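It is worth pausing here to work through a concrete case rather than discussing structure prediction in the abstract. The textbook approach is simple: state the sequence, then state the predicted structure, then interpret. We follow exactly that order.
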Amino acid sequence: MEFSTLLVEQSGGVATVTLNRPEKLNAYNATMGAELARAFAALDADDNVRVIIVTGAGRAFCAGADLSSAGGDTFNYDKRRERGEVESRPALRPWNMKKPIIAAINGPAVGVGITLPMQWDIRVAAESARIGFVFVRRGVIPEALSLWTVPRQIGLARANELLMTGRIISAREALEFGIVSHVWPDAEFVRKTRELAEDIAQNTAPVSVAITKRLVWGLLAEDEMEKAQAIDSRAFQWVGKQADSREGVTAFLEKRKPSWKMKPSKDFPDFIPEIK
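Step two, the predicted structure:
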């Protein structure tokens, strides 16, 4: 795959997508958005990929939207359409992907640089990272579904503080708020993130992970416990009859590494629909 704003590498079941505009602190533009969707779609369709890491080139993760080209009209939707920056087809929905996505926040992550990772599955940060939902300080409102994802993931009071002040917080504060699950020293960050990804790639059943991801996101919107239990139970009963369940238990009893046979591309159950 050839990209102008991304680097994509694949090794040992782990794909690494690097936002690659370091001279702009990896500021997000329409090209990056389109290329990220294309990369995600290709990697999600590849059964050799078990997990995706997204990180940034240079000293930043993503400095938010690129304000340099359109200035005050950066967030004007009509002007964006005129500039050809609005996709005619719906954007890829990360929660419908079958591969977990890890945001490896290696430096500043503000604006869309943090709202997009809130749509992904795991976020970790380097000690030097700084994170901010800065929208209200730019005269706009939080976007990329963050008014839905952030309160559900960290709680209303904490979400309100971050979204309504727009202040930039340290990596340690982000850990306390529940935005990230780990903060590691900069010198150890790449290795630690890779270890986390490889743990998924090497030790988990791919279809089990895919189902778990879909249900975690899908059940966030389910407010009836009985309906949640029904789909949870049906999914558990289904996987219990599959080859990977037998292999996982047998391998554990025989004290050996499992050999998974099922593939997310063809063995995902059809009774679990995409999330609308």
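Step three, interpretation. The chain has a mean pLDDT of 93. The CA atoms of residues 64 and 111 lie 5 Å apart.
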